[in-house]
Amino acid sequence: MSDTVFTAKGLTKTYVSGEVKVHALNEVDLEIAEKEVVVLLGPSGSGKTTLLNIMGGLDRPTSGRLFFRDLDLTDLEDRELTKYRRDHVGFVFQFYNLVPSLTAYENVALVTEVAKNPMRPADALALVGLDERMHHFPAQLSGGEQQRVAIARAIAKRPAVLLCDEPTGALDSKTGIRVIEALLGVNRQLGTTTVIITHNASIQEVADRVLFFADGRIAGVRKNETRREAAELVW
Ligand SMILES: Nc1ncnc2c1ncn2[C@@H]1O[C@H](COP(=O)(O)OP(=O)(O)O)[C@@H](O)[C@H]1O
Ligand SMILES: [Mg+2]
After folding, report:
1. Strand-by-strand arrangement of the 63-68 sheet
2. What are the domain boundaries of the chain?
3. How much is the average pLDDT of 36-58?
4. In terms of CATH architecture, what is 4-97+152-232?
5. How far, in Å, from the CA of 168 to the mean position of ligand 2?
6. Residue-averaged pLDDT of the chain
7. Nearest C-alpha to atom 20 of ligand 1 is from which residue?
8. 193 neighbors 162 (Cβ within 8 angstroms)
9. Cα–Cα distance between 181 and 41 in angstroms, integer?
10. Sign of torsion, CA 64 66 72 74?
C-alpha cells in the first residue's frame, strides 16, 4: 500500500445553536493515499464540505484527530495551520474568484510570485489546456475555461493536495468534463492527491475511491479497479 497523506480518527464537528446540536461530521475514520483521486458524494448537508475544510486547514474539528502525513493538524497553532495550508494545499471552489482586471496569466502569477518552488504560470496554464488563452481576461473566457484558470492558480505552487468543492457545479456537461480532465491531468503529471466533492454521480467513475456521505458519516466506500478518463463520462 502506498504512503498515506491524510489519516482521520474519530473526526467530529458539532455545531451547537441553543438546544440544537448538528453533527456535521460524526466520528469519521479515513485514510487517503498519496496520489489518490477521491470523490465525495452525498446529499446536501451530509458533511462533505466540513470534511474538506478541515483537511485544508480552513476549519477545525470539535474532536478527533487529523494527520497530514506525520503532522497532527489538530495540534497546530493558527499560524502553523496557515503555513500548512499555504505550503501544501490548493483549493478549487464552485465559483472561480478570478481577479477580473487581470489576465489568466496574471491571475496565476499572483500566486507564483509568493510561492517557494512554483511552476511557471505558462506551464501551469498549459497543464490545464489553456496555453493559447493565457493573455485573455476572465470575461473573455467561458465558465469552464475560467475554472481551469482557477485550477492552474491552485496547482502552480505544486501543492501536495488539491481540494475541490463542487468544481463543476456551475458548468454544463461539456465544459464540466474538460474541468475534470484538467484535474486528472494535474493528478497524473504532478502526482497531486485530489479530493473532489460533487453532486454528479457520473464523476465517480474517474476516482480511485468514492466515499458516500450520509448524516456526517461515511456510509459507504467504492473502490474502482480502473479509473475512467474524463472523456468517457456521460452526464
Ligand atoms: N458554520 C456552520 N454553522 C452551523 N451549522 C453548520 C455550519 N456549517 C455547516 N453546518 C451544518 O453542518 C452540516 C454539514 O454541512 P456541510 O459540510 O456543508 O454539508 P455538505 O457539504 O455535504 O452539503 C449541515 O447540517 C450544515 O447545515
Ligand atoms: Mg458542501
Report:
1. 20-33, 4-17, 63-68, 71-72
2. 4-97+152-232
3. 97
4. 3-Layer(aba) Sandwich (3.40)
5. 13
6. 95
7. 45
8. yes
9. 19
10. negative
